[in-house]
Amino acid sequence: MLGELSERLRGGHHAKALPPSFRRGAAAGAVGLVLLATGLTATARDEPGLGRFYDQKIKWAACEGTELPKDLQCGSLTVPLDYADPGKGTLELALARYRASSDDPRGSVVLNFGGPGGSGVQGLAYGRKDFLGLTDDYDVVSFDPRGVGRSSPVSCGADATSRALEATDGEGTDDPRDALRQLREVAAECEKRSGPVLAHMGTVDVARDLDVMRQALGDKKLNYLGFSYGTRLGAVYAARFPEKVGRMALDGVDTLTDPPAEQGLASARGQQTALENFLTWCTEQLACPFGQDARAAREHVVALVRSLDDTPVPTDFGYEFTGQDLAGAIAQGLYTKEMWPVLQRVLAQLMEDGDTSGVEALASGGLAPAPAPPP
């Protein structure tokens, strides 16, 4: 997938359009973009209270987890909870990387798979084969953004997803004001359970984390590859730190002008239509895990999400796989019809064998592993 991009990162050419293999949120299309900036003196490190964060070094070690690639390394980065008040508290961000195979590497490339809310550590682990071209010359790095995965994750309670579904599924709620009331209750529960991190999870905060990460990685400039929402993050970083932009590729560019509420509504409508189409297709296949009734299949999906909210499944990445994670995995599998057989397969693995590896891969924006060959 990334062969052409790898060549352009090596040679410094302007990137052409990239294959839209990873898309999240309201992506406007698959577009590659390289931004090259001249070197200027950085000022962020000199802001009061930030020097200690910029001076840290990342300690890398083998990642914990039996299912993780042996050559994947994990580390952590300390960042301020609030950049406006660095003494207010700190957060620990989880990072992962594949080392460059070159004896003379050209630094790092940081990846963001989109979301917002996707685990970069998990995405890098599952998408390893896609990035081997880049590791010829670069350390390939990704991370769990603040509030996600292993990075001080936000918790909304075990039944948050099912409560949100009940408020918005269009069947049990006729009054939109009542649905809004229920959603506000869920949001209040998230705020209560998550502590101070929830108020500091914006894209600007994550962009500032990226700059601390760049310095901790030992890079004078940030080389960055972002998919879908990751293009928004890259654009915000470039606007905030234009003098620190190295080679930046943005695939599936997100708009910065449309109101987020309108983007979210359009995306939700599109995903609902895609889900109905997928279930119609699935129930026409003998291998469909939901049977051959499309209406009953929809009820199965809702029940599956709720059951995972009630009883989350532990993962090798140090967190529990919930109904919200499953909803994200399904959304990933709905982007193209070419993904429907993969989505059908991983849902069957989950329902028939309790195997979450495939849906975990989709939820992270990575590729679901192929089934093992028969003995």
TrEMBL record:
Residues in AB hydrolase-1 domain copies: 110-308
GO molecular function term, any single one: hydrolase activity
Region of interest called Disordered, as start-end residue ranges on this chain: 150-175
Assigned keywords, A-Z: Hydrolase, Signal
Coiled-coil blocks: none
Family according to the record: Belongs to the peptidase S33 family.
UniProt-recorded name of the protein: Alpha/beta hydrolase
